[in-house]
Give the backbone structure.
Amino acid sequence: MKSTAIANSNIALVKYWGKRDEKLILPTNSSISMTLDKLHTTTTVEFSPSLKEDQIKIDGKKILGEEAKRVSQHLGLVRKMKGENLFARVESENNFPKAAGLASSASAFAALSLAATKAIGFALSRRELSILARQGSGSASRSIQGGYNEWMKGTKEDGSDSYSKQIAPQSHWQELRMLVTVLTTKEKKVKSRAGMAQTVANSPLYKAWLETVEKDLETVRSSILEKSLFRLGPCAELNALKMHSTMMTTQPHIMYWEPESIAMMKEVMQMREDGISAYFTMDGGPQVKILCLENDAKKIQKRASELKGVEKTILCSAGEDAKTIEKGLF
Ligand code: DP6
């Protein structure tokens, strides 16, 4: 009753921002993302009759409180599906800093969903896994499959039509890159979950977000299929700015941008002035991610690394599907 899974993180090109059901994690809008080959979570789960409670370790540290509760609740969903009530030992490792705006909850809940269902003796379809992962963290629904995924918001109350579908596999666009610039690895003060709920509740711009997101989905979906960075980049950049505008206009306002983030975004704009095709996106944290093509990637990485306050940069391509592996963490 033991299994280990590895899942890549993903970064949205059209963001998920707002829930219509907080408990089932159903979104108000669909979203599209790229999985990243260099950022992943490995998780081992073992269900055992000798345990009196779930035992959870992340990056070598035992976790307690809210964080542990969220993992246990997710294991609870798997136990319920199987009609099993064994507790589990869970160990998870990220190869990047968690909760710093690098979508750690996406790879974490995707890996946990796959490892836990395999350990308990289930072989779920990709669609079922995406629905399960979604209930741990919305963005995790997009980390079950590699390449490019669209999480369809769905309309059903039970969430059975709210899952991610692959738009194109990992191999589809060999030249596309996403450069992740890590500006600070401090855990963020306002978690995406709380920020999202507050924005839906009181940002005057939230309505405009919803009104324009369908068009963005269409542009991003078709530009991925056509492999056109000239169409994809500007739309993804604007979509991220629109999401952050809704956050900045909620009360109390939320601003994930640090001075280094603004400097990096301006540097990307300057690169374009200099004839380099580069576009930025940002999530619930200070890190800036830069979309570009392989030919320009090294040049962009060098310029980005030279800015003040950059801890490191990670050059990513599209990642592969979440999968089980033999070698466990214990
Ligand atoms: C800004 O998936 O972390 O990264 O569903 O509450 O766990 P919960 O939220 P989460 O939110 C991600 C928000 C985002 C945009 C995105 O990834 O689409």
